[in-house]
């Protein structure tokens, strides 16, 4: 027998309204116990909630008869006044009625189990709750609408068609089938390979929209990295001092640029050092900078010689050279630095972070992030889990294409490719994978 669960759906603390949800077979009984009857399904009804003859609160009660509910089970919502004592009293009453407090993500897990959502949609519910930027919201909403699931279903259809042809060739080798029946599976598989390749190439974009576009500030101590970071963050996130090597670890600051989340990090003045603690900071900083989507190499306009700097080994073509402290130099100094660094293929910007703040660089940075993260379509994958399954499907497909002449082997690989895709939407995933997906949710979702 399935437990009937309850949990507050709204955040803890003082608020005008709190919503408490109930789901499971005993939901109707619980509603009856609290208000003396069942209201019309899916209609807000004002009632006094009572337990043991004592009034708890006047509440809006919503009753959902399964399967027409979020979870697909009988379910109810109580909208009560959002005071702590009111919520506590209702939760105690539900517990006394034999209901159990829900685990994190348990409501959404039940929705998944009853076929209300696929796994990618369930993940999107979590992403939507966590969304802080427009980019995150749009991406999560697209995924919640089933855009991902539909795309995978289309791909699985292609695989099933190919499989049908291969199996026909396996099962009826001597019948009067057209000779090239197995070869006819090829175009569909090739089309799919191209589409999966495109999706894989787009994985980084989906993950960056969700987790943030990573921008690393690199450069010698005292170049002005912390000053620029603080100016971009519009607050004092890093301590600005004139002592070299003060910023020891990686400081990550979240920014919103053009509606997208970005993470900006000051990377501890990457350089040789004898100090162990500083060396660890340098190692982390180097790794962060290496994996970042963009490196801003901040240099002091008054003290720059590319030959004396080790930072040119860290930056790549397309990264930015930020010539700082231009208030200290003649205008032609910037041009001289540009010439010195020309072969590195960097985009050069110059400013005085102390005098001008981040103004001269913010707009360009925003444009860069928007261009990198916006795409015509929703990304096919927003998580490593998705990318791994896509990669697997692609590898099986590759093998199937290589061995189309051996129809039995090819058919088996097509089947495996299809299974890998199914796992993204959770059609055949084992319990432990589901546990992982849902445990990241909050209670009440
Ligand atoms: P970091 O070690 O690269 O993080 O450098 P900081 O941001 O701590 O800056 C080092 C010193 O340079 C501080 O004294 C800053 O006030 C100064 N500084 C930063 N930007 C500028 C600038 O645009 N012009 C001038 N003249 N000084 C600056």
Helical content (DSSP H or I, runs of 4+):
40-55%
- Multimeric organization: single chain
Q: Would you tell me the structural class of the helices and strands?
A: alpha/beta
- Count of helical stretches: 16
Query: How far is the N terminus from the C terminus?
Result: 21 Å
Our Rg estimate from Cα atoms comes to 29 Å
**Form type:** flat
Bound molecules: guanosine-5'-diphosphate
CATH class of the largest domain: Alpha Beta
The mean pLDDT is 86
CATH superfamily of the largest domain: P-loop containing nucleotide triphosphate hydrolases
Number of domain units: 3
Total strands: the figure is 12
What share of residues are in beta strands? 15-25%
Please identify, by name, the CATH architecture of the largest domain: 3-Layer(aba) Sandwich
Low-confidence stretches: none
What composes the largest sheet? 6 strands, mixed
- The helix-strand sequence is EEHEEEHEHHHHHHEHEEHEEHEHHHHH
Q: Nutshell version of this structure?
A:
The chain is of the alpha/beta class. It contains 16 helices and 12 strands. Helix content is 46%, strand content 18%.
Protein traits:
alpha/beta; Gyrase A, domain 2; Four Helix Bundle (Hemerythrin (Met), subunit A); Rossmann fold; six-stranded mixed sheet; 16 helices; 46% helix; flat; binds guanosine-5'-diphosphate
Structure description:
The protein has 445 residues and is α/β, with parallel strands linked by helices. The chain has three domains: 5-102, Probable tRNA modification gtpase trme, domain 1 (Gyrase A, domain 2, 2-Layer Sandwich); 122-202 and 381-439, Up-down Bundle (Four Helix Bundle (Hemerythrin (Met), subunit A)), CATH 1.20.120.430; 209-373, P-loop containing nucleotide triphosphate hydrolases (Rossmann fold, 3-Layer(aba) Sandwich), CATH 3.40.50.300. The chain is built from 16 helices and twelve strands. The strands form two sheets. The chain has a six-stranded mixed β-sheet. A six-stranded mixed β-sheet has the order 8-9-7-10-11-12, with helices on both faces. Helix 4 (119-130) packs antiparallel against helix 5, helix 6 runs antiparallel to helix 15 (407-425) and helix 14 (384-402) packs antiparallel against helix 15 (407-425). The structure holds guanosine-5'-diphosphate. Guanosine-5'-diphosphate binds next to helix 9 and helix 12. Guanosine-5'-diphosphate (GDP) is lined by residues 219, 221-227, 240-242, 247, 269, 324-325, 327-328, 352-355. Keywords: Cytoplasm, GTP-binding, Hydrolase, Magnesium, Metal-binding, Nucleotide-binding, Potassium, tRNA processing. One of its GO terms (cellular component) is cytoplasm. One of its GO terms (biological process) is tRNA methylation.
């Amino acid at each position: 027998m399935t437990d009937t669960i309850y949990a507050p759906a709204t955040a803890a603390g003082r608020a005008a309204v709190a919503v408490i949800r109930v789901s499971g077979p005993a939901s109707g009984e619980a509603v009856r116990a609290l208000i003396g009857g069942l209201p019309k399904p899916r209609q807000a009804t004002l009632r006094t909630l009572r337990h043991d003859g004592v009034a708890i609160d006047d509440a809006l009660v919503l009753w959902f008869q399964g399967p027409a509910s979020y979870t697909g089970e009988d379910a109810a919502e109580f909208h009560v006044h959002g005071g702590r004592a009111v919520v506590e009293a209702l939760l105690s009453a539900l517990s006394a009625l034999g209901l159990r407090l829900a685990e994190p993500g348990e409501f959404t897990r039940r929705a998944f189990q009853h076929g209300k959502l696929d796994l990618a949609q369930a993940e999107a519910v979590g992403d939507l709750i966590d969304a802080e930027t427009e980019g995150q919201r749009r991406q999560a909403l697209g995924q919640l609408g089933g855009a991902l699931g539909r795309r995978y279903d289309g791909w699985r259809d292609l695989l099933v068609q190919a499989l049908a042809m291969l199996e026909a060739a396996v099962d009826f080798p001597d019948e009067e089938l057209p000779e090239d029946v197995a070869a006819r599976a090829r175009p569909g598989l090739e089309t799919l390979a191209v589409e999966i390749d495109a999706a894989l190439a787009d994985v980084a974009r989906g993950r960056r929209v969700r987790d943030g576009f990573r921008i690393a500030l690199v450069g010698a101590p005292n170049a002005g990295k912390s000053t620029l970071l603080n100016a971009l963050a519009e607050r004092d996130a890093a301590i600005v001092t004139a002592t070299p090597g003060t910023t020891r670890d990686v400081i990550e600051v979240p920014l919103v640029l053009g509606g997208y989340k970005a993470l900006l990090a000051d990377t501890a003045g990457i350089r040789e050092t004898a100090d162990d603690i500083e060396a660890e900071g340098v190692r982390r900083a180097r790794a962060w900078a290496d994996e970042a989507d963009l490196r801003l190499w901040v240099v002091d306009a008054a003290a720059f010689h590319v030959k004396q700097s080790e930072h040119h080994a860290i930056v790549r073509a397309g990264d930015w050279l930020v010539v700082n402290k231009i208030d200290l130099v003649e205008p032609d100094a910037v041009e001289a630095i540009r010439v010195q660094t020309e072969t590195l293929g960097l985009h050069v910007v110059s400013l005085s972070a102390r005098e001008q703040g981040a103004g001269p660089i913010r707009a360009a940075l925003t444009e860069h992030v928007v261009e990198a993260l916006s795409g015509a379509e929703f990304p096919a994958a927003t998580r490593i889990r998705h990318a791994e399954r896509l990669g697997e499907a692609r590898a099986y497909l590759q093998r199937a294409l290589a061995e189309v002449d051996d129809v039995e082997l090819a058919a088996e690989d097509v089947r495996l490719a299809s299974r890998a895709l199914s796992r993204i939407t959770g059609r055949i995933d084992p319990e432990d994978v589901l546990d992982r997906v849902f445990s990241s949710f909050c209670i009440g979702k």
